[in-house]
Specification:
With about 775 residues, the chain is mostly helical. The chain folds into 4 domains: about 5-85, Phosphorylase Kinase, domain 1, CATH 3.30.200.20; about 90-290, Orthogonal Bundle (Transferase(Phosphotransferase), domain 1), CATH 1.10.510.10; about 455-585, Serine Threonine Protein Phosphatase 5, Tetratricopeptide repeat (Alpha Horseshoe); about 590-625 and about 640-770, Serine Threonine Protein Phosphatase 5, Tetratricopeptide repeat (Alpha Horseshoe). It has 34 helices and 8 strands. α33 (about 730-745) packs across α34. Residues about 35-40, about 155-175, about 285-290 and about 550-590 have low confidence and may be disordered.
């Protein structure tokens, strides 16, 4: 599945890679249906399969007998999977050249078993398309399994259950595999395919390697598979040892129970045959020359995070991006991925801080600026969003996502005609991006052009028929245009696509009340919405609209517009995704916190510092659950205490109280615990040590710092380390010094001589542990 290109890096170090991507939309549709109809749903199913393949492949990580998937990138709305390039080609070429000796076949078979066993142990993976074309050989004689396009993870049913309707002599597009190599059970039910099915397919491949002939020859292959016993290798070629022939025969038994039950078991039998050969071929054990230096844990985490975003698994993607930040806080890529995932999860404030960090780390990154623009738009500052997205268009004038964001921000600023012009620019660059059509629809609705908005939504739906948010918005638009039947059909279609969407249930409640007067049904829908996501915006709209005959609230029915969430970079309404491992931030008004943070960062201006304190205090007053405001105030007071000529202890006490409030409101945000421990360590080290250890035992920056760069936390570890040393807690002091230096390398060069000897000693031990002394 897909197209593979050979690419070469043009700067040092030079190396070649294979780049796999999905076929062009028009070519795919023309091949399947004979016409280039660009609204065919099957293409998007293919793209989803490609994303699943990319994720599965990247998650396999490094193994010398699997083609390494380095990373996933996106360009022009299409995903690209970067793979190691294997230069010698596939097994089919060697079979055709008749150069495979029995020892070489056994050698390759053992390597194959090791690669597949890794896939089974790592992910429970079933390949489902084992054949000579999917087994590559490099110049060192290393076998590598490739092409996981039809693979599945056990217990995850991804395709239909009956391949018979789509099977062809070469390939079953339903995911069954390549017919001459398929196990019998794959013809009856894809759900029956397991590791033993892959063993059958490899047995058929090994038969071909040893004899030069296929196990079954078309057109009689299906009849032979069902009615005859498979031929034996030594019957076709007397050079094949009978013991090896029996191994192949056991692989190809029709009943899965009679086959080898695992690749470990198969390898053991192959090893016993290898021991009897006169000239066995040794397996290259040194992996140092097997792959270019592209694979790192950072690249693996980054690719997995991106693939999860592509699949709409935003909570998992955020967690994987956070893992990347732990590995390398100074790398912009995980911050970019985390920002994108958080926008989709509706965590706009956190997303904005992540994007700000990304542009600090890499100011030339177009995606970082575009993500920042989306987050600024979502937090109520479209002017800043327009400026950030404009920076992205300057960096790359052909980047459609940046033009889309810039257009949406411009519409929000009231310049609807100009905004639509910018969105048309985005559409001209990527005419088949459904997200752009959805944003054009929202902008047209803002301009009062409801008919045009509906047409644009319908185009978006044709391009992506599986998006429940689009169906919901079309339903509400039809309601306003008087097409009540179409509205109810649309909302039911939205629920069928996304039955766990709180926004869609709330929208259904509005329709039931407005057009049927069904208060009871409306409240049932509201209850479903509230159970899924109590704080969603459309639920609040519905409550303000529907009388409280049953629900218990007392607000008048008012006229409000239909829900029209911002379509962010991946296009899905963020409010439709309540699942998340990252808690929602109870926010103070964003403009207050944004202004306060900007002023706070200017250390050189006492006036700005004082004004920042006023704004943070205002944020606390306006929302007593806004932990971000308490956090900003606490951090500011800690710095203020360090500058105070008198009254420092009282200021520190207030700072500590603010951090304690943050811990109470958001227990998952361990940065507050680290800062609290550093502050109280002077007066109560025992309690500070307990708090510090609790933070270490927690997820550690599971929620990114919403206000300040990650390395600012290094100061808390530094101060705590000094206090720990003074209290003879050398081990935890050394650990804290190490964390401070890892977060901010400037601590490596700091002098600690004025501090007590114990602190000096712990600091030097930390440098030694980090290899810096």
């Amino acid at each position: 599945m897909g197209i593979v290109y050979l690419a070469e890096r043009i700067v040092e170090p030079r190396y070649q890679v294979a780049i796999k991507t999905a076929p062009d939309f028009a070519e795919w549709v023309a091949k399947k249906s004979g016409k280039a109809d660009r609204t065919t749903e099957g293409y998007f199913s293919l793209l989803r399969r490609f994303h699943r393949e990319a994720l599965s492949w990247v998650q396999l990580g490094f193994h010398p007998n699997i083609v390494l998937a380095h990373k996933v990138i996106e360009d022009g709305g299409k995903p690209y999977l970067i793979l190691s390039y294997i230069d010698l080609g596939d097994l089919s070429r060697l079979i055709q050249k008749k150069v495979l000796t029995v020892p070489k076949c056994v050698n390759f078979a053992i390597q194959f078993c090791r690669g597949m066993q890794h896939a089974v142990e790592r992910m429970g993976l079933i390949h489902r398309d084992i054949k000579p074309l999917n087994i590559l050989i490099d110049r060192n004689g290393r076998l590598k399994v490739t092409d996981f396009g039809l693979a599945k993870v056990q217990l995850e049913q991804e395709f239909g259950d009956n391949p018979a309707t789509t099977a062809s002599p070469e390939l079953s597009e339903a995911g069954a595999g390549t017919l001459p190599y398929m196990a019998p059970e794959q013809f009856d039910s894809l759900s029956r395919a397991d590791t033993r099915s892959d063993i059958f397919s490899f047995g058929a491949t090994l038969f071909e390697m040893l004899t030069g002939h296929r196990l079954f020859i078309r057109p009689s292959w299906e009849m032979a598979l069902r009615e005859e016993r498979p031929p034996l290798c030594h019957e076709r070629d007397s050079q094949v040892p009978p013991a090896l022939s029996e191994i192949v025969s056991k692989c190809c038994r029709y009943d899965p129970v009679e086959r080898f039950q695992s690749f470990v078991e198969l390898e053991e039998s192959l090893r016993s045959v290898e021991a009897t050969l006169e000239d066995p071929v040794p397996i290259l054990e040194d992996p140092s020359s097997l792959d270019p230096e592209l694979y790192t844990s950072m690249i693996a985490v980054e690719s997995e995070s991106y693939a999860l975003i592509s699949l709409g698994r935003f909570g998992e993607a955020a967690g994987k991006a956070i893992e990347g930040i732990h590995i390398d806080p100074g790398n912009s890529s995980p911050w970019i991925n985390l920002s994108k995932a958080l926008v989709e999860l509706g965590k706009f404030w956190e997303a904005r801080r992540c994007s700000e960090r990304a542009v600090e780390l890499d100011p030339g990154n177009k995606r970082a600026w575009a993500n920042l623009g989306w987050a600024e738009l979502a937090t109520g500052e479209p002017q800043l969003g327009a400026e950030s997205s404009e920076r992205a268009t300057v960096l790359d004038p052909d980047f459609p996502d940046a033009w889309m964001c810039r257009g949406r921000c411009t519409v929000e600023l009231g310049a609807v005609a100009e905004g639509l012009h910018l969105l048309e620019k985005a559409r001209s660059l990527s005419p088949n991006d459904w997200k752009i059509h959805a944003n054009i629809a929202q902008s047209q609705f803002s301009a009062g052009n409801k008919d045009s908005a509906l047409e644009s939504y319908e185009e978006a739906s044709r391009l992506n028929p599986g998006d429940g948010g689009i169906q919901m918005n079309m339903a509400m638009l039809r309601s306003e245009l008087g097409n009540i039947r179409g509205a109810f059909e649309g909302i039911e279609a939205a629920l069928e696509l996304d039955p766990e969407s709180a926004t869609v249930w709330a929208a259904k409640a509005i329709l039931l009340f407005d057009h049927r007067g069904d208060i009871s049904g409306a409240h049932d829908a509201l209850s479903r919405s509230e159970a899924l996501e109590p704080d969603n915006r459309v639920l609040s709209m519905a409550r303000s609209r529907i009388p409280a005959e049953i629900g218990g609230w007392d607000t008048p029915s008012v006229a409000v517009g239909f829900p029209s969430p911002v379509h962010s970079p991946s296009g899905t309404p963020a409010e439709a995704h309540p699942e998340s491992s990252v808690p929602i931030t109870p926010e103070a008004p964003p403009e207050i916190i944004s202004r306060a943070t900007a002023l706070r960062r200017d250390f050189s201006s006492p006036a700005n510092f004082e004004q920042a304190e006023v704004l943070f205090r205002q944020g606390v007053r306006e929302n007593q659950n806004a932990w971000v405001a308490y956090y900003g105030l606490g951090e500011l007071l800690a710095v203020k205490a360090s500058r105070a000529d008198r009254g420092a202890e009282e200021i520190l006490d207030e700072a500590a109280r603010n951090f304690e409030t943050v811990v109470r409101l958001n227990p998952a945000f361990d940065a507050a615990r680290f800062r609290l421990a550093a502050i109280i360590a002077k007066s109560n080290f025992a309690r500070a040590k307990t708090i510090y250890e609790e933070a270490l035992a927690g997820p550690q920056t599971e929620i990114p710092d919403p206000l300040y760069p990650h390395d600012w936390l290094g100061g808390s570890h530094w101060e705590f380390a000094i206090r720990a040393a003074k209290n003879n807690a050398r081990d935890i002091s050394v650990d804290a010094f190490c964390r401070a230096i890892r977060m901010d390398e400037s601590y490596y060069g700091r002098t600690i001589e004025p501090q007590p000897a114990l602190a000096n000693l712990a600091w030097r031990q930390a440098l030694h542990r980090l290899g810096l002394r």
